[in-house]
Prior knowledge:
There is one protein chain. With 137 residues, the protein is α+β, with helices and mostly antiparallel strands. 21% of the residues lie in helices and 41% in strands. The protein contains 3 helices and 7 strands, in the order E-E-E-E-H-E-E-E-H-H. Strands 1, 2, 3, 4, 5, 6 and 7 form a 7-stranded mixed beta sheet that branches. A hairpin with a 2-residue loop joins strand 1 and strand 2. The longest helix has 13 residues.
Amino acid sequence: MTQQNTDERPGIAAAIVVNEGRVLMVRRRVSEGQLSWQFPAGEVEPGEAREDAAVRETQEETGLTVAAVKLLGERVHPKTGRLMSYTACKVLGGTAYVADTEELAELAWVAHGEIPQYVPYGLFEPVQEYLDAVLIS
Length: 137
């Protein structure tokens, strides 16, 4: 695993939140290149665990209280060059809404078959495998 760009900029933690057979996706007000729809995510703060950052960002962006289930994987994102970690999370409470109106335009609970409409370039393989397992079963 290369450490490119990680010395200057913190890693990004993404939360893969599945509830009632759908995965939570958010649309940023300002897209990062092709990235418009994505998972709730944000920078890992100094001394913060990746899983904790994913939980915190989900709360800040969507108002949902979630718990980390497991780290699915990490990579240097091919579109942004940022170190990304992906954490599977379960909903503990709350109702998802656009809590961070400066960052987010909207959110959606997306069914398995709808994912390609939101993310046409495909998902990180461990995330796709996880969603295949939990959303299809």
